[in-house]
Specification:
- The protein contains 12 helices and 11 strands.
- The protein has about 325 residues and is an alpha/beta fold.
- Helix 2 links the parallel strand 1 and strand 2.
- The structure holds phosphoric acid mono(formamide)ester.
- The site of phosphoric acid mono(formamide)ester has 9 residues, from helix 2.
Length: about 325
């Protein structure tokens, strides 16, 4: 596997899951694979889980790791070609990318949607420039439209906790005070659609996701109806996708917060969220602290998803 930005890059998903569970049994069985190889992790945005889990995964494989926070200590980067650089950005991404490629063997990039230009976001301008100009294999640590390491960890977690072969999985929108990208819900939908699970998406009208990601999912505007019989509730906020509201907050209606009353409608569902989560906006204290909450186990599986991906990339070097 040269690059990893979406579920299709993994190839056979069931085989990848098998490899992930083998790694989980013994995460130090491939410590020689990354010897003398360097992972460079580049963050255009903040992170707790992605940073730590990916670094840990690389260390488990024997890799050296370097982390660059672009907004803390690096030169401010211009990203658009053709701009007269007489402002506050002294370096262009088109030089910075190949320079970064000189110092490492694999590059991980985190670059969120900016909500300035929908076409740029959905064309994945930043990560695609890394793929094109770095000369190195590149993987997404959350790009503008997808967060595949998160979705892979989510899938591993569902496989571990599911009680039936074909669980009902519900992705629900929930309120949030800030405009958040669609990367997590897009990606979650993409990965759920790659399984044979029953998959339902529920959100208020106006929050429709890109149909390319919704795929064959059932879209239900009545949240309570969507929750009926669910085995997994996956909560997430996202800003509007459809024009002319792209990137806007249309609602902060707290009747969409996941609470005990709604969880009672489910088949004793597990509660999932990628974290960080705003308590009592997205989910109540009671639900996230309940035995059915598997948000910590989900975060722990980020190490496994990252290690499975890095192992595949190292094997292709
Ligand atoms: N879920 C996730 O990606 O967490 P961070 O933003 O903290 O990396």
């Amino acid at each position: 596997m040269r690059n990893f930005t979406c579920v299709q890059d993994l190839g056979d998903l069931q085989q990848a899951l098998k490899e992930a569970f083998e790694i989980k049994k013994d995460r130090f069985q491939f410590t020689g694979l990354g010897k003398n190889k360097t992972l460079l992790m580049i963050f255009f945005n903040s992170s707790l889980r992605t940073r730590l889990s990916t670094q840990k995964a690389a260390m488990n494989l024997g890799m050296n790791t370097m982390v660059l926070d672009v907004n803390q200590g690096a030169w401010k980067l211009e990203t658009e070609r053709g701009v007269i650089m007489d402002g506050d950005k002294p370096e262009h991404l088109l030089e910075a990318i190949p320079v970064m490629g000189c110092y490492c063997d694999i590059i991980g990039v985190r670059s969120f949607a900016r909500f300035e230009n929908k076409e740029e976001d959905y064309n994945e301008l930043i990560i695609n420039q890394f793929i094109r100009y770095s000369g190195r294999p590149v993987f997404s640590m959350e790009a503008a439209t997808r967060h595949p390491l998160q979705s892979f960890a989510d899938l591993i977690t569902i496989e571990e906790y599911k009680k039936t072969a074909r669980p009902k999985v519900v992705l629900t929108w929930a309120p949030h005070p800030k405009a958040l990208p669609q990367a997590v819900p897009n990606s979650f939908a993409e990965w759920m659609n790659a399984t044979d699970y029953e998959f339902v998406i529920t959100h208020p009208e106006g929050y429709e996701l890109d149909p390319a990601f919704v795929g064959n999912a059932c879209v239900e505007y009545d949240q309570k109806k969507a929750f009926e019989g669910a085995d997994f509730i996956y909560a997430k906020n996202w800003a509007a996708y459809t024009d002319p509201n792209y990137g806007k907050i249309l609602s902060t209606d707290r009747s969409w917060t996941v609470d005990t009353e709604k969880m009672v409608l489910t088949n004793n569902a597990y509660f999932m969220h990628c974290l960080p989560v705003r308590r009592n906006m997205i989910v109540t204290d009671d639900v996230i602290e309940s035995p059915q909450s598997i948000v910590i186990q989900e975060a722990a599986n980020r190490e496994i998803s990252a290690q499975t991906v890095l192992k595949k990339m190292l094997m292709s070097l």
